[in-house]
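Field reference: sequence -> structure
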Amino acid sequence: MLLATLVEHLEFSILQGDTNTNISSIAFDSREVVPNGLFVAITGFTVDGHQYIQRAVELGATAILVEKDIKVDAPITILKVADTRYAMAHTSARFYSDPTENLNLIGITGTNGKTSTTYFIKSILEQSKRTVGVIGTIGAMVGNQSLKTKSTTPTTPESLHLQHMFADMVETGVHDCVMEVSSHALSLQRTAASRFKSGIFTNLTPDHLELHNTMEEYFEAKAMLFDLTTDYNIVNIDDEYGRRLAAKISSNQAKLVTYGIENEADIRATDIRQYADYTSYIAHTPTGSIAIQSNLPGLIYVYNSLAAVACAYCNGISLDQIAAGIRAVESIKGRLEVVYQDDDRKIIVDFAHTEDSLEKALSTLRPFTKGRLLLVFGVYAAPGQLGSGKRQAMGKIAAAYSDIAIVTSDNPKDQDPDTIIAEVSAAVEAAGGTYRGIVDRREAIQYAIDISEKDDVILIAGKGHETSQVIGKTEIPFNEAEIVNEIMSSK
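Structure field:
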């Protein structure tokens, strides 16, 4: 494809060469450059792609997109743009023939609930015999088949990989794609060239403040999704930030559809009944009401399945298919997932890694725990005051809802795990809780199992679906479901 075609909708200046050159591929990692490729120099948090331009040229790049005044002693084209991330999103979309023009793309954003909402929607759409693609925290898939991807980002891939995945979906006959959209992705322009037909907002609670600095910046990052939609914006108006968002986007092109429990909304849940292993309620929509059963217990999954009801309503799905789709979701990996159960104890793994999600997980389990509620958890947060606030908040929640909190490591990365555990433990103690600090996460799980008694419930929180742990710069295998069952099989 001609470079001129790739960049025709971008504002740029030509530092050298011209745009009349054929491009065979796009790369933002210089190691992946091939002959006649376009290299996009991205300024990252720790690495500046401009430092690798010479390497890209040596590997055969014939064109470079930059943000800085660069000159290379080689017969190549260099284009300067204001934001190479934005430019990469648009050139990638064009390179892959604008695949989201041929997809019913549904984006879900919010602090908590993105993954479960995604899988509820996927199941509902599959009830109407559609082939559905999913991109999110647990991975990318079409139907039940995983998609191969080079992406290493935890939720929303870089724009180049994202557009490639969309193109693969279109090629395989996918009509609908449901995608988790992180605040990082929105801020870093990964979704800039994606055409969303619907956007969903679940909630907003403190998280990722190491990137956004304040809740206001975090909110504004999330709100960016709803300026990318064309048909529907679906918002939880029981959430304080959801109400703000609804007011902010009320005049947008996309129709505003609200959902909630406490406030009057377009889609509303009443008659909520909670049990140990499921929750039931009545969903009210403009086209009628239907009894819903979610096999994931807790009020949070009423909200998340209700968001799916709202999305399905907007997509013209029948009420019977909506109810069948939600009921068909037996479990979601790492979301209140029972990984072991016998007559004496139940062991549950959950992704809860913020104070809000930890509180919701513990408060869901508490009423149905006959014995003690044992919590194994760690806290990963940014260094400094922001991280300290999160550690103290989660320590207080652990004290309020668990009988014994075993404080351990999550993904400490370059932080000192002993320091983190000491601060969280101090918060548990200050709030009147009982705790034990154990740095090694496997040992912490072993300890919780060893001290558990009949009718106890053990919640292992923070990692959920993740199958590795990052200590320093080393990523080690760490599958909590497997670890639990290895320990139990040896008893």
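Note: The longest strand covers residues 229-236.
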